[in-house]
Amino acid sequence: FQKVAGTTFDCSWKMGAPDLNVEIYTPPSPFCVNASWNYGIKHLVDAGYDLISVLNDDLILENYFFEKLAVASKECQAAVLCPQTARKPEGVQNAFLRQNLTYSVMSKREGWAWTIKRDAARLVPPISDVLKTFCGDDWYWFHIHKNGGMWMKMIGNIIYHYVGKSGVDAGVMPDLDVERKLFNELIAKAT
Question: What is the DSSP secondary-structure string of 23-69?
Answer without folding.
Answer: EEE--SS---HHHHHHHHHHHHHHTT-SEEEEE-SSEEEPTTHHHHH
